[in-house]
Write a structure and sequence with these properties.
Elements lengths: L1 H15 L13 H10 L22 H7 L4 E8 L2 E9 L15 E2 L4 H14 L31 H5 L21 H6 L23 H15 L3 H10 L15 H4 L28 E2 L1 H16 L8 H7 L4 E3 L1 H4 L3 E3 L4 E3 L6 E8 L3 E8 L4 E7 L4 H16 L6
Antiparallel strand pairs: 1-2, 1-10, 3-4, 5-6, 6-7, 7-8, 8-9, 9-10
Helix pairs in contact: 1-13, 2-13, 4-7, 4-8, 10-11
């Protein structure tokens, strides 16, 4: 998980080098910009990300890179001027099939789901139902964070959970499928059929940053206990319905009407795999959605940040979400990066951006980013295990075509 996170977050470094070309104007037709993106990829080299600045670097096509990385399908939505400029699908939903990827195709958002979870929390904070700095055991009913020597001085809070500083372990969620799918409480306890580490604090809360999917499972339990409703129903009420995200759900398997639109995951060889989505723990990575829906989500946050909308969060609350809670060690990713509430932050002024990558086993990837000052952004979703690398090549092409700023 950490290795994948480091690789995908490297896209932020790439974008900081991908200044817009001076010959690109705002009145360029969408289809011309689409062609620029489709034919403007540059090979990503982890040892030399600055290569994207090299005007002499060979430009590659999206189709060729998808073939190289054995990624059957990709879907992209580009945001410009606080609206979706275009959305387009490429390839197929499943290798060997003819069902095409379209803007209506559903992909796994993976860890990009955490941004939606964070907004759900902040909405309830805004309503006075939750406090970011209260001991979370105040809200938990079905299960409680075990007390220990680690929690004597400082308690686990929602702020610490949202920023991966709770002291909870990093773990994925295997389980014994011969017994059945574990309940949410069984996941939190690490009890059979769950085979993950239990949600027991391993470091003093607030003492260190440690990316923890389990921390977001605790948030899921908090929201369900406080609201008395399933997590997806809360998401529908707070986020999806107000923003008309009609193709978004935390319920899996998908309902019958959506199954024919689902993009299957693929391994490194491009072989189709069964989705690893059969879990009751979903707040950390269980969202099924489209790039267009995630673009609507990003646009709403940007408009709220600008003071132009309050359909989900107020300007004050979204600016709290986008306020840096801590600076991450630049040695981890090779460049400065901040942690907000459920999002990663980069740059200042017009360069300021929020992002959250996602990568789910056995082979789906997601990238979501926005520039609030400019009203620009992009969402990229792919159904291949190497989709994170492809994102690193698509992002600079979009940045170049749309004149995104270069971070200083």
């Amino acid at each position: 998980m950490k290795k994948q996170l480091c690789l995908v977050l490297a896209a932020l470094s790439v974008l900081s080098c991908a200044s817009g070309r001076p010959d690109v104007k705002h009145d360029v037709r969408a289809d011309q910009r689409i062609r620029e993106v489709e034919s403007g990829l540059v090979e990503f080299r982890p040892d030399a990300p600055m290569a994207v600045q090299d005007s002499s670097a060979k430009r590659l096509t999206l189709a060729d890179r998808m073939e190289l990385y054995k990624i059957p399908g990709v879907s992209i939505a580009v945001i410009d001027g606080n609206s979706i400029a275009w959305a387009k699908g490429y390839g197929v939903l499943k290798a060997g099939s003819t069902a095409p990827v379209t803007p209506q195709s559903l992909f796994e958002a993976a860890s990009t789901s955490k941004a939606v979870t964070a907004v759900m929390v902040l909405h309830l904070v805004q309503e006075g139902k939750l406090d970011l700095d209260e001991n979370v055991n105040t809200y938990l009913k079905s299960w409680r964070v075990p007390e220990s020597d680690m929690t004597k001085e400082k308690k686990v809070t929602l702020r610490l959970l949202l920023t991966h500083q709770s002291g909870l372990p990093a773990t994925n969620f295997p389980y014994d499928d011969s017994i059945g799918v574990p309940t949410l409480v069984q996941v939190l306890k690490g009890e059979s059929p769950a085979q993950n580490k239990p949600a027991v604090v391993e470091a003093v809360p607030g003492s260190q940053w440690n990316y923890s999917n389990l921390g977001y499972v605790v948030i899921q339990q908090i929201l369900e206990d406080v609201c008395g409703e399933p997590f997806d129903r809360i998401a529908q009420q707070v986020v999806f319905k107000p923003l008309r995200m009609t193709s978004s759900t935390f319920v899996y398997p998908l309902k019958k009407a959506l199954r024919d639109k689902e993009a299957m995951p693929h391994d490194e060889a491009g072989r189709a795999c069964e989705p690893g989505m059969k879990s009751n723990a979903v707040a950390q990575g269980g969202l099924m959605t489209t790039p267009s829906d995630l673009a609507r989500f990003a646009i709403e946050l940007m408009r709220a940040w600008q003071g132009g909308s309050e359909r989900v969060l107020s300007r004050e609350t979204v600016r709290l979400m986008f306020s840096k809670e801590l600076d991450l060690d630049p040695r981890m990713f090779g460049f400065p990066l901040g942690e907000g509430l459920g999002v990663f932050l980069r740059g200042e002024g017009s360069d300021f951006s929020f992002s959250h990558p996602g990568s789910n086993w056995p082979g789906t990837t997601s990238w979501w980013t926005g520039y609030p000052v400019l009203g620009k952004g992009v969402v990229i979703m792919a159904n291949g295990v190497k989709g994170d690398i492809l994102c690193l090549e698509i992002l600079p092409a979009v940045a170049s075509a749309y004149g995104w700023p270069a971070s200083q």
